[in-house]
Amino acid sequence: MSGKNVTEVVQADAEGVGRAARILESGGLVALPTETVYGLAARADSADAVARIYATKGRPDFNPLIVHVRDRVQAEEIAHFDDRALDLAERFWPGPLTMVLPLREGAQIAGAVTAGLPTIALRQPAHRVMQAVLAQTGFPVAAPSANRSEEISPTLPDHVVASLGDACPMVLDGGASQKGLESTIVALREGGEWSLLRPGPVTKETLERILGPETAATDAGIEAPGQLSRHYSPGKPMKLSASRAEDGEYFIGFGELDGDCNLSPSGDLIEAAARLYDCLHRAAASEKPAIAVAPIPYGEVGRAINDRLRRAASLPD
Question: Which tens digits make up the pLDDT trace of 280-296?
Fold first, then answer.
């Protein structure tokens, strides 16, 4: 760590939640647990507070942020919900689904949150700690993953401290993130069209059963987090779909292919998703200069795991 300040890891009890809420109210930053990953939170209605998120993460200003809301009533004050959005909110909120929707004129949201786009990404989180903080603050909270831009997302308080150091003065400790992967992001467009912008715990197959087939991808550019080609990087060369490790490689196994860290010895993709970032953090911290990862099946949650691995390895689309 640098400087005289030290990141404080605080238990997520009533006192800790109250302290986090007061820091947010004053325009400060707090790392908060969600069911997906830990988020670096600031009040979404303050330009100065949102600017602190971008500066702390080293995040490019064209990459918009997800806004976390207390409930659907608060969400509808920020964005326009059509019948599809209302249906998805009823099915999956609170939970790991983010919707990109048209921004309401006059919504009390700092311009940097949307990176100047006419849309906004909204989610109602399911984690009891994040819900408690949102209930106390009364305002929506912008909260991208609590790590330096392009680095591995955090699923434990220690991951936050290792990435951000004393740049984040407080981490509210809610234990390990249950899902372990960032939320699914779906953009609902005019004319019934929709696009999956980031795969996640709510799968493409599930969305297609509700919304119909996904429409063709657009050239709209960056509309939501997680679309940059390089992301979740451990800072070492990575080889994917490897059957074994070569000399000098930290091997992340799956199923019967065991390794230095196994995503799921039983081949359970839900467990693999929950353990993915922790294994990547372990690989990054190891003395071995390179990483190899066992093959992960595609389909359902496997699609999201492979998406993160591909971006971590900086492989072409």
Answer: 999 999 999 999 999 99
